[in-house]
Amino acid sequence: MNNIDSVGHATGKSVYLDDIPVLKNTLYGVVYDSPLPHATVTNLDVTAAQSLPGVERVFTWRDIPGINDIGGIIPDEPLFASDEVHYIGQPVALVVAADEHTARRALGLIKIETVELEVITDPREAQEKGLLLIPSRTFRMGDVSAAWSECAYIFEGTASTGGQEHLYLETQGAYASPSENGSVKIHSSTQGPTLVQKVAARVLGIPMNRVEVEVTRLGGAFGGKEDQATATAVMAALASHILNRPVKISLHRLDDIRMTGKRHPYSSDFRIGLTEEYKIKAYSAVMFQNGGAAADLSPAIMERTLFHSTNAYFIPNTEVTVHSCKTNLPPNTAFRGFGAPQGMFVIEAAIAKAAAELEVPAYLIQQANFLSEGDEFQYGQVAESVNIGRCFDDLDKKFGIEKIEKEISEFNKRDPFRRKGMAMMPVCFGLSFTNTSMNQARALVHIYQDGSIGISTGAVEMGQGVNTKLAQVAAMIFSVNINRIKLESTNTTRVANTSPTAASSGTDLNGHALHNACTVLLKRLKSTAATIHECSIEEIEILNEKVVINGLATETDWEKLVQNAFLKRVSLTENGHYFTPEIYFDKSKEKGHPFAYHVYGTAAVTVTLDCLRGTYRVDDVLIVHDFGNSLNTAIDLGQVEGGVMQGIGWMTMEEVVFNDGGKLLSNTLSTYKVPDIYSAPGRVVCYALETAGPDLAILRSKAVGEPPFMYGIGAFFALCNAIKSFKPELKTDFDAPLTPEKVLMSLYNH
Ligand code: MTE
Ligand code: LUZ
Ligand code: MOS
Description:
Distance between the termini: 54 Å
Largest sheet: 8 strands, mixed
Helix content: 25-40%
Strand order of the largest sheet: 3-5-1-12-9-10-11-20
Strand content: 25-35%
Bound molecules: ligand MTE, pteridine-2,4(1H,3H)-dione, dioxothiomolybdenum(VI) ion
Number of strands: 30
């Protein structure tokens, strides 16, 4: 089954926000953002900008009719700064003009007077000064302080990971226009239309039913539009609502990179204790999450870090704390993996450290500690259908870990200046929003009189193929040709109170809701068929667009059946609702059953390092991944390849750099290096683990969006191993990304 969008994308016919034809009288908005990282605003003068010919109006916090707050979880983030600014790039005003060029010229006429305040960019320093976004949280299991004395070996260290720019191809943007009765319609490039609707209503001071949010598709999001599409959308809505004119905002790339938050950098201290047999007896870690200047999604990301801090291992005694630290940087936000990669990096660093000290391959320690059936996670959930050991063993069977190791060691003996390295990266990722109430969805299905089908859900298509998978679900239930099905835009008036398309759960949640709606409609149609053919409903099947009775095809095809049902006044519309059963979480105890199921997989990553130049390439990424019973192997493999590439980029070359004054130095694509075709691995080979798939996954097809990202972590440890083989005495520190510059310095600077 091809992706239903492939032709539209290849021919340029798919409609993104910027392709929507603009209405007459449309105005264009450009954001004026804070030039300072932390300051009191003593005066803001927009009069000169206001009087530039062509400028319609300059909006500041004073123009907000409702509440000046866009915080998604915690109300700590103004739409426009008022008396203080907290980061460079923070929106202060919006210039709206007849054209974008004029609006941009007016920016230079805005005068801001400030008194500078202390700037903090380091999360550890923020924590010391008590600057936290939310209270710190700790997950515990067993008795870690008692367990240290039972360990044969104890190792300590630090590990840190950097930020990451989402670099969605389509930048943030929105197009708002006034409708009747004081309503506003917002076209938004958002993963969370309901969040945009809710926050727009709050800021405009109108009820949610006066705000309609429409999403056609996104040119990529990767978490960057889960929360941070809201500011742009609400600014456009505000200007449109007040001026009673259509207003469009589409961020320029450099503005987008400067103003929006990124993946959270983390800096952590760890301690790991093992027995003589390499069983991890105890693990403790303290992690400092760099949250930026407002909470955004940091509380939820912190939580997912905690949930994934022991990755795919059973560790009987743990204590992991995360501090969410407030700094003068743009608020960091969701990014594929949502804090899990940061947490997993620390336990993998701890294992790598132990392996180096004990002079054994890390995979022996990994393997000795894999979760087994019935083990308890740190958060109380009991592990079921655990596949991690099988993924690892299958990978070994298919590719031969020892054989790879042998080839590498021979190469390393032979080659004068190049070194190869290998690392295994197991992954265990929990599926469900960690906030239980978000695990619900709705789907609205219309069967039209001609037999064609229109489907609306809360899912947002951002390139991940959710629309194709949803079409497949409906086509399978109705047993009709997929060409009969159209996936409608995502719209808050058709499907309300949606969760963002995130947490890899888009297909699962919306697919289940769709399944429920289609099942009800199918039953109605079967009942109609039973009336036509004067038999009982149990004898009826619809197979390949035909009514089949007791295995025999009848004259009645899908179109006839639908037409007949319509004439008989049967409802051909249904709204399906779904909520994930069985899940709950008790925050007061930090225990529960938060996930519907877990996704497992293992990758072996090999690299070749040029020790003269510090340059390297990733040779192979060999994977066995648990897709369950995949709905669409082409899409799923695409998600694996994209995720792996993005993970490798985060670990090796993408370096978000701020100076001490909170200014982003890596603010262009010439100073921020993203992976391109030349940095792609030589091979990405991914085998599907043979499994039935869990009941709670839609048609037993497991969610796939985020988990493969974490295979990229293997590239970091493979590089560490290559470095170690060139310079055995080197004590590697775990400071990602491991850029070629950093590699070169570590090879020769000690
Ligand atoms: N794939 C593409 N092509 N573009 C994206 O923006 N986002 C990722 C992943 N894969 C993304 C993507 C992220 S962060 C998530 S959470 C999931 O897709 C969301 O979609 P799903 O829930 O339908 O898997
Ligand atoms: N968003 C969210 C997420 O609000 N809660 C989550 O658990 C989550 N997980 C991954 C990505 N986005
Ligand atoms: Mo993905 S980080 O859940 O949008």
